[in-house]
Records
---
Amino acid sequence: MAPNMASESVKVVVRCRPLNEREKAMNCNMVISIDSSHCQCFIEKPGATEEPPKQFTFDGTYYISHSTEQIYNEIAYPLVEGVTEGYNGTIFAYGQTGSGKSFTMQGVLDPPSQRGIIPRAFEHIFETIQCAENTKFLVRASYLEIYKEEIRDLLGKETKQKMELKEHPERGVYVRDLSMHTVHSVGECERIMDQGWRNRSVGYTLMNKDSSRSHSIFTIHLEICSTDALLREYQEEIKKL
Ligand SMILES: Nc1ncnc2c1ncn2[C@@H]1O[C@H](COP(=O)(O)OP(=O)(O)OP(=O)(O)O)[C@@H](O)[C@H]1O
């Protein structure tokens, strides 16, 4: 873990992907190099070798040799651990088309080290649930897409229907009637993720032949309840009778 990372509530990390087929065919060179131990990223200006590279510092820097497993363990693990303790957490993947957002969040099955952050979070949460004593968990998932300024429920009955954005004085901003799906296992979560993924708006861009063309938000809602508290409540009710 990079120095001071544990104390930051917002961490910004950068991941560099390998050249794609199109870039290789155009004989492009890598212009990025990374010093992971100092969380630094260097960008050279192509053709200007005499100019010093531009230097940027992040909370974490990952090169083409790094796996999603490593990113999960260093960045996402503490955040998801916080969620299992009742805190809110968000992982926000940002970058131009073809930069590797889906590769990082959704991931691939092979090699296993490149499984995505979302399925790793499912596994992490269900492992916690299995080990927890005297605690009951309710896990629900929702998945929406924002495409051309319109919101769609990727897990709803009518995935093309435009949803409404609302604001509540206590709950904050929310999407009215967004479907929530109770999940009991990692497998069920994966099925829901795949189902929503198939409903996304996709298309071709010059940088990515399988571009998703939209923004999407996958949310895992976790309700945690101590069974001791439940038992006490139940005993109180019995006393009243
Ligand atoms: N770290 C990586 N290692 C190997 N291949 C990668 C890596 N990152 C991305 N790729 C490959 O690059 C291509 C584009 O990645 P991806 O679809 O994840 O981009 P994206 O940012 O989600 O794009 P869009 O916004 O257009 O949906 C994919 O073929 C993906 O497999």
Note: The chain has a mean pLDDT of 89.
---
Amino acid sequence: MTGIVSDSTAVQYHIGVSRAMLRGARYVLLPGDPDRVEPIASCLDRATELARHREYRSALGYVDDTPVLVMSTGIGSPSTGIAVEELARLGVTHFLRLGTTGAIQPHIALGDLIISEGAVRLEGTSGHYAPVEYPAVASLSLTQKLVEAALHHNFSYQTGICCSSDSFWPGQERYDSFSGYVQRRFQGSLDEWQHLGVLNFEMETSALFTIARTFGLHAASLCGVIALRTQSESVQEGVYAQVKERLALVARETVKRHAALGAR
Ligand SMILES: O=P(O)(O)O[C@H]1O[C@H](CO)[C@@H](O)[C@H]1O
Ligand SMILES: O=c1cc[nH]c(=O)[nH]1
């Protein structure tokens, strides 16, 4: 039986790109927001748009001679899991999430970058790939290059554990939802994660780390802080432009340094 999804030479069913379109790219930069693809791609050389399909918008560019795909994942772990599946099939081996996030530690500032060493799996998708005991951990070599790149640009950054939630409101203990209700299991959870040293909330990193690991592939996560959850439930949209620029600059430098290792 042949199906479009399982054929590695075909245009992939959800993401709308094929192996030939990737020009051998092994690196992918993964923002959640489709509108972040173009500004990130504009920090690469010779960038061109590839496709727009559902939440997946893609562009191909270069860091010197290294081809790099930029593709949005949409919001959340299910669509991120589909992106990893289909990109892995096309030969992508290194996945770098470029996201926005809400910080839950008081020493973190708006615009800071957070590099995740691991992630709390507060989502369902990764459980379809590995049991709950399996850790969601980052690729060491890719993460080391992220740290070097943030230092190179002199951007303030933190490293640690993030919490990846399946919901933006109750799972991140926000009370400004439509109903205002947060289930008992999440009441007090922000405080608890904070005491356990978790740095931030977002929605994709744990699925990305888990799935990439189970495939024997490499993933890292860089997020820019747009909400200070110890002060407010709101996101501060004024910092979004600065965060976007920082993510793109650090990503380019990370690929440059990692590609120079010549690792497969
Ligand atoms: O800015 P992105 O990459 O989408 O990331 C964060 O923003 C979205 C929620 O607003 C979630 O996807 C969360 O993980
Ligand atoms: O607080 C935040 C900000 C961005 N993304 C999230 O998931 N949470």
Note: Residues 1-5 have pLDDT under 50 and may be disordered.
---
Amino acid sequence: MAQLTRVSGSVGLITLQNPPVNALSAAVRQGIVDTVKKAVSDPLVKCVVICGQNGVFCGGADIREFGAPMTGPPLVPMIHAIEATNKPVVAAIEGAALGGGLELALGCHYRIIHSKARVGLPEVTLGLLPAAGGSQRLPRLIGVPAALELITTGRHVSAAEALKLGIVDQVTDDNTVDTTVKFALSVVGRSLESRRISTFPCPPVSDLDAVFDVAMQRVRQSARGAIAPVTCVQAVRAAATLPYTQGMKREQELMATLFTSGQARALQYCFFAQRAVSRWSMPSGARWDTSKPRPISKAAVIGLGTMGRGIAVALAQAGLSVVAVETQEKQLMDAKQAVSGMLERGAKRRGVAPALGLVSYSHNIQAVAEADLVIEAVFEDMDLKKKVFQQLSAVCKPGTLLCTNTSSLDVDHLASQTPSPELVVGMHFFAPAHVMKLLEVVYGPRSSPQAVATAMQLGKKMGKVSVAVGNCRGFVGNRMLKPYMEQAFFLLEEGATPELVDQALEEFGFAMGVFRMSDLSGLDVGWRVRKADGLVDPDATSGRSARIRQGRRYSPLGDLLCEQGRFGQKAGRGWYQYDKPGSRVAKPDPWLHNFLEQYRARHGLGVRHIDHQEVLERCLYALINEGFRILEDGIAAGPEDIDAIYVFGYGWPRYRGGPMFYAGMVGLANVLERLEHFHQVHPDVPYLQPCSLLRRLVASGSPPIQKWREVIRKVHSQL
Ligand SMILES: CCCCCCCC/C=C\C=C\CC(=O)SCCNC(=O)CCNC(=O)[C@H](O)C(C)(C)COP(=O)(O)OP(=O)(O)OC[C@H]1O[C@@H](n2cnc3c(N)ncnc32)[C@H](O)[C@@H]1OP(=O)(O)O
């Protein structure tokens, strides 16, 4: 809806009304068309101000409407009509003017913005381009290079920067609507000829081809397979090289290709998934809206290795006072320096003062006595963590929330070391903890809803995408990673190379293939876990039995590399070779290829041709299958939780929506059929056996992902 009122005698004030962000739904667009017409034809109205209700100008097109057939008046002619009026129209921007919201403002003759508001054309993050004239007007207003950067990144711009770039005409600290009303009155009678951006020529650029070549190269490199950034460059090129009308035609053509693309659907799904995970629920029925978090002002971190340092930084940057504890003096001194450095660099980037004073350091665990919440981040060893939890129980004040940053150990077992297991949750950060967006909040069977609510709220405060998950080996992310990596190892046994597997996964859109990733994180990490699980058997050297452990197919390849000291990047060799330890440039290693050949010969393994399709199906479908098991087990409440975890923590390409969304896109029946095939070929690989929830979903007609929860609920009610 949009409402027209007359204020200050002769100003037609149009207020967009569609909470929470005044998105341009069909009703709002209709409202704008009607009120503009009315204001223009009202002789008492001399000028028009457009604003949004509740302190937000407009969050853009209503993303919820994208999946459905278009109704209501289209945006492009609506904005043209505003630009063409003979009465000045001024946008009063509070909160945000994003996407179609900024395009609407660019159709106005002037723009006044509040100093705390921001503007931007983030369509590219939704797999789209600014197709209500944004790609044609913005370059005409601020020049091609600046517009290219804003449109291809989707970056939000502060009011101050918007003024500097020339996007807005004035910044105010006062009441934006009052200021804009006065401004509108002051420009009544002035010619509007020079205020219609569509009539501007694009400011000339000296070497246009070079500018676009560089931009295209940049987006191709950083977008890794995403089509919208490339299309955005093409649209801006149209602005720079074509008359406005033809540029608009091109904008629409390009938008049409994006609008129906799977990538746009995936990215829009991610937008809502990111927000849906904050509405968490537990199998007990506890929920986000009925569980009240505790206030946390003082936190503590135990253990200042890489993870502990990052967590301390994340907490301090969120404004909490932090006690950082490390028992070893030398490690404590190193950590102090490292944490201060990270805080200083972060503050410089964000243009704020570093929160150095918020962190205090101690080698004595007694220092955490007054903390409201403690995050244990010591070495991944159950006995050590148990000891820390026992100490914490003795030291902390009553009611302190005890959290563990374990990546796979049993949170409930740790909880049992304390007299208040309801106050224990997992807070699984991802390295580097002050940078990575994902936080898995792990609840055990005894964790209280209040403890979960507190950890989730703290995650939000730290700017994380926090996902509440149940307690099981590896939780959600690492549990799904296991079958994925296992398939990659098996593919090497069957004839693939690390390069082939990684190339297939990187072309799919992963930032790094499984072997490069494994070299980066260190092969010894998994080796230690496998040893603890009793899987590593140094005596089993040849024959089929050497590749069977605990009754199922097993590849000892990773163990054999570790026995050679090939721990990955830090050792200068792993699945690849590196110029020196710590170098990041992975090169194919003839030693490794020779080693694989000898290994296959020793075990009598035939080599066959493996193509990218098989790599993707084996690795990804095994991972997805485990995702369905996780849903079936109630470890994740819905597919959005799994997808958010993979997109924000595991480098899954956002434009593919996450593993569960991807399964829906390729077709659940297809995934099931391929898993059945692979399981038939490899009956000794339980991870390839299709999960019963997947069968159930296919049997119920492969409903859209939004309906999976209904099927899952039915499955759970029958258990
Ligand atoms: C056939 C081919 C031709 C087709 C031609 C079509 C022509 C189309 C022309 C123009 C197209 C324009 C494209 C766009 O405008 S796309 C939208 C661009 N806008 C955005 O990307 C902004 C998205 N929103 C945000 O960034 C934030 O929400 C923000 C506005 C900054 C507010 O942030 P915050 O205060 O943190 O609040 P939340 O993010 O939690 O959001 C609150 C709730 O509002 C919902 N929301 C937000 N934006 C939208 C939107 N644009 N549409 C619908 N809903 C939106 C959000 O989901 C939250 O809801 P909930 O609490 O239920 O999760």
Note: The chain has a mean pLDDT of 96.
---
Amino acid sequence: MGVEIKVDGLTKSFGKQVIWRDVSLTVPAGEICVMLGPSGTGKSVFLKALIGLLKPDTGSIVIEGTDIASCSEKDLYEIRKLFGVLFQDGAMFGSMNLYDNVAFPLREHTRKSESDIRDIVMEKMDLVGLVGAEDKLPGEISGGMRKRAGLARALVLDPEIVLFDEPDSGLDPVRTAFLNQLIVDLNAQIDATFLIVTHDINTARTVPDNIGLLYHKHLAMFGPREMLLSSEEPVVRQFLNAQRVGPIGMSEEKDANELAAEAGQELPPLPPIPMQLEPSNGIPRRSQRPPGEWCRDHGVTPPPGSFQADAAIATR
Ligand SMILES: Nc1ncnc2c1ncn2[C@@H]1O[C@H](COP(=O)(O)OP(=O)(O)OP(=O)(O)O)[C@@H](O)[C@H]1O
């Protein structure tokens, strides 16, 4: 069913370098969330904090009643079993074929028989469309296939939470579109909580139920997709529409002179909000909301042309 992650007042620094402070958000059970932010704003650090690989300085991360930030190693070990993680490069063992890579967590963490392991591995290989490639070595397949193999491995212990660290990095737009569809289909099938760190604006605009934006050492905004895509808040608007005009500069915040030079420049209108990507079988996910619902409920007029089928095609 997926479990909720409740983050409250989280701050992390390395020595004197504050990465982010006072981050609070709830990743709802079973929903898909995307975390965005300029390079170096600590998205990977955030993911690592969620699985207890890095300890925050202050704040809590509560999952099923356990605070990961302060729990014992033993409790952390138990909580980690709820997670599946897709690392950026798939993190495959180069000398093992895909079958053994995917079977690895089962052999390490369970006492299942080889015949049970075979059933599970083949089920997950099927889920990600890799049946027939079991004997290949990671070096013999494309980057997209490696990601899918990494995903099969992330799913092998039936996680309640799946973390994706830049699943689209290094993939061409077509492979990214296929991977996004796979992510949506998987969420519909396994109903786990998904958190995706990405730089891909199309992914952020079309895949998730919720979007977060880390910027300048804090969480600039977190909420439903339609809330962020209709937001006029300068940082959110600039980032989600990949624009140069706005507070975010080349190396982070623009200085006063740069901002003054932009004063009076007209911002392009907000583009239409695309339809959310649906499962390929056409059956809505449990957490999927009807298009435009958030805007209607909150009295927000979405940009013209929003929620039309052709708006979705134009941005996919
Ligand atoms: N273990 C560590 N020790 C010291 N500094 C670290 C450590 N891990 C990360 N950092 C620093 O934290 C900052 C944020 O890094 P992080 O990789 O989380 O950014 P990011 O938002 O994921 O970036 P990108 O989008 O480029 O992947 C960087 O300045 C990085 O050098």
Note: Residues 14, 19, 37, 39-45 surround adenosine-5'-triphosphate (CB under 6 Å).
